[in-house]
Structures are given as structure tokens and as C-alpha cells.
């Protein structure tokens, strides 16, 4: 009875299309889940995500769950996660990608999952890092350690949304720092983020993490621009 009353005043809706969810649906309706543009890069040895970083930083493997297009369903999901506080979207996507990656040989030897961090000012304003639950669920699926105290964002930057590749690189090349590097020495790291566009943020983070002794770095993101 109480559950029914709650559903009347606070109905559960799809985070992609805003239609009411059925009892057997969680966070995203069946239609939107079917329409999501999955990349399957990790299943098909598709190098398109990895190729973004060719000659820029050394990555062992790289994949994304979805393709990203402006005004598309993926953009709506990530927008609702980042700016409307629906952290359960990160939980869902982390479970989704984690269950897939644990079946792929290249990701079965991941030791540590590290999120791309937010600057403390943005973290305080937003209240959470949109990548946290995504990364935690992937770490759980891969039986890896989740570490958010190694990579830090030392400087605050303005939004990257409207910057080109060069501008993004200049904006991120000196803002990430690493500490506690002994925690990741001789480890295979999976760096996780929400979306890859030009790759400047990941490039900067990967190059900082490479300062640790004998590390390998792979990448998994919610989305990548198509």
C-alpha cells in the first residue's frame, strides 16, 4: 500500500525518455535500453576508441559502452546523471559494462580501477563524482580494487564542452597530479570516465599515472563520440 502511494506521488520514469517504467524495468525502459547505441568495441576488437590516443599516451586497451551523439539518448542519460543527480544511472551503466568486461580476456587481469577525478570545488558543488558508482561497479565485477586517492585534479578548469582538441589539451595538460603511486606500482590500471570526445582529459590522466613503476593502463568509459 505504501509503495503504491509513493509511486502515485513520485512515479518512476525512464531516465532517457521520461515515460513511466513498468514494474520489471529499472531506471531505463525496455525500448530505450534496446535503442541505446552500444559500441561492442570490447567484444569485436574494435580499435576506434584506442586509436583516439595513438601517439598521445600508451594504453593497453580502450572501450566505451555507448556511442555519443548530440541530442541522442546517450547524451540524455549522461546529462541526467551529471546535472540532475541521478547517480543510479552510473550504477546501472557500471553493472552493464562490468558484466561485459569480465567475459573479455583483455580486461580479466585488471588490478585497480581509478576514476577521472573532479576538482574539490566542483565536487563540493555537484555533491558527487559522476564516475564513482560506474567505476565501483566495474571494479566489483572485475574483482579489482577501486582507488580514488591516487589521481587528483589539482586545478579547476572551465567546462570543456565547447573546446576543440588543442584547447582541451592546453586546459588539462597540467591540472592532474598523482599521489600514493606505490599503491599502483606493477599494476594493470583501468581508468574510467564518463565520455571521451577529444581524449585530452584521458591523455593527461594516463601520462600522470605512467609515472608509477611498471604500470599498464587501459580505459573504459560510458560513452565516446562517434
Describe what you observe in this structure.
The protein has 2 domains: 1-35, no CATH class; 36-225, Rossmann fold. Helices cover 37% and strands 17% of the residues. It is built from 10 helices and 7 strands. β6, α10 and β7 (216-225) form a beta-alpha-beta unit. α9 packs parallel to α10 (200-209). The model is unreliable at 1-6 (pLDDT under 50).
Q: What is the succession of H and E elements?
A: HHHHEHHEHHEEHEEHE
Per DSSP E runs of 2 or more residues, the count of β-strands stands at 7
Distance between the termini: 46 Å
Strand content: 15-25%
What's the gyration radius in Å? 18 Å
Largest sheet: 5 strands, parallel
The parts where pLDDT drops under 50 for at least 5 residues are: 1-6
Shape assignment: globular
Q: What CATH architecture of the largest domain would you give? A: 3-Layer(aba) Sandwich
* Strand arrangement in the largest pleated sheet: 1-7-6-2-3
Counting H and I runs of at least 4 residues, what is the number of helices?
10
* CATH level 1 name of the largest domain: Alpha Beta
Overall pLDDT level: 90
Q: What is the count of structural domains?
A: 2
Estimated structural class: alpha/beta
Helical residue percent band: 25-40%
- CATH fold name of the largest domain, please? Rossmann fold
